[in-house]
Amino acid sequence: MTAYDEIAQLEGDNECRAWLTKVIATRKDIAAFVSSRRPGSAEGEFDRFMNGSFNFCVCIRFNDDGPKSIIRFPKPGHTLTARREEKVRSEVRVLEYLREMTNLPLPNVTSWGLEDESPQNLGPFIIMDFVDGTSLSTLLKQPVQSEEEDVILSSDIEDAKLDCVYEQLAEFLLELSQLEFDSIGGITKNADRNEWLTTEKPFTYNMNEMAVTVMNYPLGTFPTAPFPTTRHYLEYQSDENITHLRIQRNLAHDREDARKKYIARHQFRKLIPKYCMDNNGPFKLFCEDLQPSNMLADPETLKVNAILDWEFTHAMPAQFTYDPPWWLILKGPDMWLDRYSMKEFLHRYEPRLEQFLRALERVEARS
């Protein structure tokens, strides 16, 4: 199991906790602010808080019986504070692009802004309509006795029920696979040409994790521009992996563990020339955090009403899009192998992969 940098985590948690205290104390101001960003003169009132891994949401209800609103802030300490505005800007662009180019079920963004526009300078924000539904992972998971237990696909789930879900997810992935760019990074729209381009440096899920969970990680090593080829990006990823091993002193448990991690990282770099396909693109829009836990569905019909959390979405190597989804049994192989064997993982994963591929074939046949 990968060791955590407890000092970095404590610092991040303390920063986030202080910020959350301010948010909670400011909830009336937040409600008034959200109301001011909404058409009409309805008054807003605090409804509830919703906490995620990287974002904190405040739900606001109104006295005109209209839809509730969610204002979502990236959490400092859990999101690299210096990149919060960049993260929000990037997600808003991605949502605009997806609404323009796809039929994916997306939250309706009604307003957004940067820190200096926010109430009490709480940070950059996105305001969107509240979407009814239950997390898809909650509807599919094995029943648990406590929240500490693993989230794993129910072993006795009906095939028909899972087919219904897999076909929807296959449709989503198929749509995303058709979106192409000529370099790797964040997307922006050229309004003069009405064209979407890759013009921004990527800020990936893993970069954020390095920044907030590894003490003294050298942020200056993060990319400053898009990557022109797959090889350039994978070589950067290799450097990031090696830097992580060098910087986080407790990443290895002992000398032998350090040796294995060192060899694995350098072997990965050697494999890049051999397995680097479609080096010059086209590159596909890829969301690193696309998974059932970030989808809201109707608990009766299992119809997905909204796909959330597009913050770590970039044009990426096409192989990322074409890889089998890691979330087919809800828990990915990296987390699974911390507690279970590869044999156990494959025993659960392979039948579901075959079922998903059949669902994908049915969707492709209808397209």
What does this structure look like?
The protein is an alpha+beta fold and 367 residues long. The protein has two domains: 6-130, Phosphorylase Kinase, domain 1 (2-Layer Sandwich); 135-366, Aminoglycoside 3'-phosphotransferase, Chain: A, domain 2, CATH 3.90.1200. 43% of the residues lie in helices and 17% in strands. It has helices spanning 6-25, 27-36, 84-101, 136-140, 159-177, 205-213, 230-247, 255-275, 318-322, 333-339, 342-366; strands at 44-51, 55-62, 69-74, 109-113, 125-129, 134-135, 180-181, 186-190, 195-200, 283-287, 295-297, 304-307, 313-316. Strands 1-2-3-5-4 form a five-stranded antiparallel beta sheet. A three-stranded antiparallel beta sheet has the order 6-11-12. Helix 5 crosses helix 11 (342-366) and helix 7 (230-247) runs antiparallel to helix 8. The longest helix is centred in the last third of the chain and has 25 residues, at 342-366. Residues 69-318 form the Aminoglycoside phosphotransferase domain. Keywords: Kinase, Transferase. One of its GO terms (molecular function) is kinase activity. This is Protein kinase-like (PK-like).
Key terms:
Aminoglycoside_PTrfase; transferase; alpha+beta; Aminoglycoside 3'-phosphotransferase, Chain: A, domain 2; Phosphorylase Kinase, domain 1; Protein kinase-like (PK-like); 5-stranded antiparallel β-sheet; kinase activity; 367 residues; 3-stranded antiparallel β-sheet; 13 strands; 11 helices
